[in-house]
């Protein structure tokens, strides 16, 4: 049995998508023990990051920030509410809109998470400015892909 001739453009190690995907998986694994120490999953942490920036936002706004569907975000937000970290309140202006407010417990969790970014910088073996430059490149790539998807 012979193996088919491999096209370099289709080799796994030549794929930017795989480099980003596998790095994302490892980033999530690096966060896991820290997040377990405060009782959050990685998606919950991302939602809390948005709320720590701006309390009182709507489900639609947090969904937009996280580039996810509001329907898939709702169970996660209900779990955070069940854990006493936030309150979901229907808007008095439009009952279809749900606003999210941190509880005291949710605000206090921010202090416990403040050292997480430093731990990730240390684990990466890079300095902060190198990682910020990489982040900007990834964000630029994301923006180009969003534009391409919207114009298609």
From TrEMBL:
<dbReference type="InterPro" id="IPR055166">
    <property type="entry name" value="Transc_reg_Sar_Rot_HTH"/>
</dbReference>
<protein>
    <submittedName>
        <fullName>MarR family transcriptional regulator</fullName>
    </submittedName>
</protein>
<keyword id="KW-0238">DNA-binding</keyword>
<keyword id="KW-0805">Transcription regulation</keyword>
<dbReference type="InterPro" id="IPR036388">
    <property type="entry name" value="WH-like_DNA-bd_sf"/>
</dbReference>
<dbReference type="GO" id="GO:0003677">
    <property type="term" value="F:DNA binding"/>
</dbReference>
<feature type="domain" description="HTH marR-type">
    <location>
        <begin position="13"/>
        <end position="147"/>
    </location>
</feature>
<keyword id="KW-0804">Transcription</keyword>
<dbReference type="Pfam" id="PF22381">
    <property type="entry name" value="Staph_reg_Sar_Rot"/>
</dbReference>
<dbReference type="GO" id="GO:0006950">
    <property type="term" value="P:response to stress"/>
</dbReference>
<dbReference type="InterPro" id="IPR000835">
    <property type="entry name" value="HTH_MarR-typ"/>
</dbReference>
<dbReference type="GO" id="GO:0003700">
    <property type="term" value="F:DNA-binding transcription factor activity"/>
</dbReference>
<dbReference type="InterPro" id="IPR036390">
    <property type="entry name" value="WH_DNA-bd_sf"/>
</dbReference>
<dbReference type="InterPro" id="IPR039422">
    <property type="entry name" value="MarR/SlyA-like"/>
</dbReference>
<dbReference type="GO" id="GO:0005737">
    <property type="term" value="C:cytoplasm"/>
</dbReference>
<keyword id="KW-0963">Cytoplasm</keyword>
């Amino acid at each position: 049995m012979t193996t088919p001739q491999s096209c370099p453009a289709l080799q796994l190690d030549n794929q930017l998508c795989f480099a980003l995907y596998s790095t994302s998986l490892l980033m999530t694994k690096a966060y896991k023990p820290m997040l377990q120490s405060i009782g959050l999953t990685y998606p919950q942490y991302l939602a809390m990051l948005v709320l720590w920036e701006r309390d009182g936002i709507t489900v639609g706004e947090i969904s937009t920030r996280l580039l996810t569907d509001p329907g898939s975000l709702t169970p996660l937000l209900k779990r955070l509410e069940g854990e006493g970290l936030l309150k979901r309140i229907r808007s008095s202006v439009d009952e279809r809109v749900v606003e999210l407010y941190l509880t005291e417990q949710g605000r206090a969790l921010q202090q416990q998470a403040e050292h997480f970014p430093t731990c990730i910088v240390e684990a990466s073996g890079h300095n902060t400015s190198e990682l910020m430059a990489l982040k900007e490149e990834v964000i630029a790539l994301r923006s180009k892909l969003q534009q391409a998807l919207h114009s298609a």
